[in-house]
Structure formats: structure tokens, C-alpha cells
Amino acid sequence: MNDTERDYLHKDLPSLLNMLESKNNATGRRTIMHRIIIVGRLNKNFEDKKKIGEHYEIMFRNQQQQQNNQKNPNFFYEKATGIIIIYPSLFVHVIESSSETIKDILKDMRKMMDDPEGMVTDARILNMAHEVHIRMFPVYTFKLMNLSLEHDSSEPSESLETLVNDMVIKLLRMGKYLNDQSKGQLKKEIIENLHEHHPEFFPNQNHANYLVKNQELMSPNEYLSFYEKPLNIIIDSDLTWPAPSRMFPFN
């Protein structure tokens, strides 16, 4: 088969971009959506825990208003949905949105961590899911939990992978349940009474505490460094002399 015949056979086949755009159009989205799950530690001097939930609610509301007021809206913008579960000393955060919004969240979290009086002192990324086609959470909300940490220094017997997978599965099941219950509008009572009716959805605090301290998991600063630092690769030909005469195979 020559090149002309091959081009003729493939001319009507959709590209990967065409397939992604078709999936986005089917779900009413304009761009690729991502989901990130973060576990973190709250500042000990930070007393009013619900402020961190309100902080992100206001952030996402302002983003939506700015988007609505623009004459030329950002094509890559996606509204944020998810939940932040706020314990007395820890939090677990799930965000579903575009990559730009997620980067804004991580930058905001890094800013808090750099501030001695910030609400967050440490954080780790448990999971980053790319090209998510279905939102698991109907809206963005927060849930306050008044359960104290039982054993601050205890280490679980399960492996790191098992702990992360278990926490991710619980949170996704929570999102599906909330989505099924919302029916267009999520009632506040559902969130307030969620722990009483479905405690199996909530991550174990001891496990969350262990994961925050685990250096194998990536921090927000480490994740952002992939976007903010140039990629410098030294290849063998840069370290030898004389310079190769045939730089490309088609020369």
C-alpha cells in the first residue's frame, strides 16, 4: 500500500482531538476536566475552621462571576465542584475543574503554607485524575467534622498505595451519593447529616495524618514546579567534541 492509498483510507478517521471534543460536547463541557485530591494539615493557631471552606467557596464564586462578566469568556474555564472535609487539625480536599483552576488552588495553598499565619501548614497530593468525563460532585461545598485525632504518631499497617486507593474510593463514592441525592439542587441538610447516615464515606483521620507526613507524596510546590521551571535536558552530544555533523536523520 502506497502513501496515497493510506492517506485515502485514513482521511475520514477522527483524530484524538475530535474524539475528546465529542465527549466534551456530549457532557456539556467545553474543555478537558481534571480531578485532584489533596490532604493537608491546618495551622494550630487557626481556630475558626469553617473559614477555609468559606475561603474556597468565595474564590470559586468570584471566578464564576468574572467569567460571566467577560465579553470574551475563557474557553478553557470549567466551574469547580467538589468538597473539603475539615477536621480539627486536618483537611481532605476534592476539586473537579479545569487545569487552570486547579493550578490556582495549588498556588493559593502554597501561599498559605509560606505564611506563618496561613490556614494551611502542609499538604500532599493524593491523586490527580486527568480527562475526567463525569463530575462526581454536583456542587462545591464543605463539611465540618469535630472528631479529634485518636493517635497522632501511629502508623497504619497498610501500604501507602492501599491507603491512598482506599481514601480515593471513599471520596468518589461520597460524590456519587451526593450527585444522586441532589436532583438539581443539593440540600444543606444532606451535607450536615452525611456523617451520621454514611460514615463509610469519610476518610480515616489517622490515615490522613500519616499521608500528610509521607514524603513520597508530592506537595503542591513540587507539583507546580513542573509548570513554572524550564525543562533543561543535557544530551550526550552536548558533552562531546566535535559536534555531530548530521543533527537530523533527514539531512
From TrEMBL:
It comes from the Eukaryota. This is Uncharacterized protein. The lineage of its organism: Eukaryota, Metazoa, Spiralia, Gnathifera, Rotifera.
